[in-house]
Write a sequence for this structure.
């Protein structure tokens, strides 16, 4: 039987649509199971400074449809130090918080894992990142909404591209992962995607142009993942201007547009399922696990696996994009 009476919940790192749906589900599931809930503001920073408020069910009313996070988020350098983590632990003890639910991406789970090990403290993580780059879950909270945003933006840019016979490079987020670029390209009917997973294997730009980019088209759209490996949209466009001066090139960087907006139905449902599952995990005395979804089923993924293992890109999708872009 679990001895957990009070849980803390925080969001950390970059915000993602659906985080509020997760906060709502964690809060209400904990209350349903007789626990007290405390909301920790501004991520690990709020854990150190003690910016904490008790959450009742009404604290999370009318938030499922909102983007961003009502708990706010912040980067926290202090939490990367042993002294900072000790201060965070002191706060948890002082507040009577027995376990922690953290919502965020790779950095959030890395911090959670170190903290859980140092203090033998129960932590469960939820994968909240638009990048979809966490191993052990088919999708992360916020990814579907970001993908829909990218699709809508590219649809609008295509109107201009086709009016002017131009080659557009559109940069999307993803850091070192090409999920948004590849699936965004498929969803929007783009001609190609330049992603970091393939960049080290071949020259994607020359491959794309030699394959016959624009042989049968007046305008083309290529999605580029932001990454040092790909050089980003600006880097790729500079190369085209030098090596293929016949192209009229334009660059659009979607930036933080992709992070905002009301979460899609899929993100709301998934975040809600994961939030309830986080409390189930704590009731089962699980710790140091991330809640994931594989083949529509909830799974518990050890932090070490979720962080250390690289999530593979589906290479069949690259071929699908190639076939449908002729």
């Amino acid at each position: 039987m679990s001895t957990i009476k009070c849980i803390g919940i925080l969001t950390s790192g970059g915000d993602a649509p659906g985080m509020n749906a997760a906060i709502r589900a964690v809060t209400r599931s904990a209350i349903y199971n007789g626990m007290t809930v405390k909301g920790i503001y501004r991520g690990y920073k709020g854990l150190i400074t003690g910016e904490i408020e008790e959450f009742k069910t009404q604290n999370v009313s009318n938030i499922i449809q909102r983007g961003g996070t009502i708990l706010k988020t912040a980067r926290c350098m202090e939490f990367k130090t042993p002294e900072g983590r000790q201060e965070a632990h002191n706060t948890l003890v002082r507040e009577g918080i027995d376990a922690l639910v953290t919502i965020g991406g790779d950095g959030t789970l890395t911090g959670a894992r170190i903290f859980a090990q140092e203090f033998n403290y129960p932590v469960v993580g939820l994968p909240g990142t638009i990048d979809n780059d966490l191993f052990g879950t088919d999708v992360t909270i916020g990814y579907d909404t970001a993908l829909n945003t990218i699709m809508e933006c590219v649809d609008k840019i295509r109107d201009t591209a086709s009016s002017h016979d131009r080659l557009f490079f559109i940069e999307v987020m993803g850091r070192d992962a090409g999920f948004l670029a590849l699936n965004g390209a498929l969803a929007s009917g783009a001609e190609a995607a330049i992603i970091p997973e393939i960049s080290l294997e071949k020259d994607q730009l020359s491959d794309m142009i030699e394959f016959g980019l624009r042989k049968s088209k007046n305008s083309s759209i290529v999605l580029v993942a932001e990454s040092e490996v790909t050089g980003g949209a600006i880097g790729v466009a500079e190369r085209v201007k030098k090596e293929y001066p016949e192209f009229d090139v334009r660059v659009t960087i979607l930036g933080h547009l992709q992070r905002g907006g009301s979460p899609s139905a899929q993100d709301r449902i998934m975040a809600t399922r994961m939030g309830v599952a986080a409390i189930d995990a704590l009731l089962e005395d699980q710790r140091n696990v991330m809640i994931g979804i594989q083949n529509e089923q909830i799974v518990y993924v050890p932090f070490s696996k979720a962080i250390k293992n690289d999530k593979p890109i589906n290479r069949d999708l690259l071929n699908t994009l190639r076939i449908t872009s002729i």
